[in-house]
Amino acid sequence: MTFAAELRNAVRDEHDAIERTRVSARLADGTITTAEYADLLRQLHTVHTALERAWRSRPELEDLYPFARHSRLAAVDADLATLGEPLDDGSEPHPSVDELLASIDRWAESSPVSLVGPMYVLEGSRMGSQGLAKSLPAILGTAEGEGVRYHASPEGWFDEWRTFKTGLEDLCTDPDDRAAVVAAAKQTFVALIGVYDGRSVDR
Ligand code: HEM
Asked: Does 102 sit in the ligand 1 pocket, CB within 6 Å?
């Protein structure tokens, strides 16, 4: 079995769990409010900012998956602007995100290969995002393709994703590295499940 397949199997339960969260359900059934969706985007922006900075400081990682090209920070900015929501609304990161941010800093210093874990989870989420990019504008009251740029992947992205997963075979040969990546991916899912469980957004 390839390491990419191992990784996917290892986080299957967490993936199922995030699909069952309140925010996922509200995204799927169309009851998500603009304020709730904006809150989700802000949390994702915080995680992407930390991860992309850490990833891009490591040439061996950036060569494998060029976050410089695939950054979704500008997409979040554009989505929030479309929705008339500020990027900084004064709210704090979710506590589970705070813990993940601390881990990302630690991994960047002492275990860069662990960064593959959060990267796999965040960028792998594009796999299920295609449907959202189509369905969300009607829910959010935006024009087609607007307010949902975070969920849209450019043409050719899936080929690059496959190349990234193949490249993991050479990057992660050491069993300890593989275990570290799996643990980091699980921790990322747990942090995001905290976010997707939702919190009250009183606007
Ligand atoms: C209701 C919400 C979601 C649905 C319906 C969904 C659906 C899917 C689908 C259809 C796939 C592709 C499976 C395949 O190719 O066999 C997938 C893969 C994946 N999704 Fe989700 N997903 C959801 C939410 C999320 C979230 C919130 C995250 C993380 C933040 C996530 C992370 C991933 C990852 C890491 C993969 C595996 C990618 C790979 O190994 O290539 N998903 N999802």
From this structure: no
